[in-house]
Amino acid sequence: MTLSPDVSRQLSRMEEACRQTQRQLDMVDRQITRRMTALIPDLLPRRTRYRDGKAPDPQAFLERYRSQLAALTAERQPEIDALSRKLARQEQVIARFLEQHGEAVELSGQVQ
C-alpha cells in the first residue's frame, strides 16, 4: 500500500507550516538576544566607581541585565504566546492526521 500523492502533499504542507512557525519563534528569540547583546555596554558599571577605591559590583550588573531581559521579553510576550499556541495546534493537527493515515504513512516511509 502506498501513500496517495494527495495525502503525502497535505502532510508535507502541514509539516512545512509547522517548521515555518518554529522558525518565527526562533527569530523572535534571536532578536531578543541580539538586542540584549547590544545593551550590554550600557549595563556595565562606569569606571569612575573603581577609581574611588570601590570595586564594581557584579551582582548589580546581573540585576540590570535580568531586568532588561525581562522587559524585552515582556514586550514580545504576546507574539511569543501567539506563535507558541499556533505551533501547538499545528503539532496536534499533524498528530491527528498521522493517526488517521498512520498505516499508510508508515508503509510509505518504509518503502522510501
Give a structural overview.
87% of the residues lie in helices and 0% in strands. By secondary structure, it is mainly alpha-helical. It has one domain (5-111). The mean pLDDT is 84.
Q: Give a short account of the largest sheet.
A: none
**Percentage of β-strand residues:** under 5%
What is the general shape?
rod-shaped
In total, how many beta strands? 0
Number of helices: 3
What is the structural class?
mainly alpha
Low-pLDDT windows of residues: none
What are the main properties of this structure?
112 residues, mainly alpha, 3 helices
Condensed summary:
The protein is mainly α and 112 residues long.
List the helices and strands and how they pair.
Layout: H1 5-43, H2 48-51, H3 58-111
Helix pairs in contact: 1-3
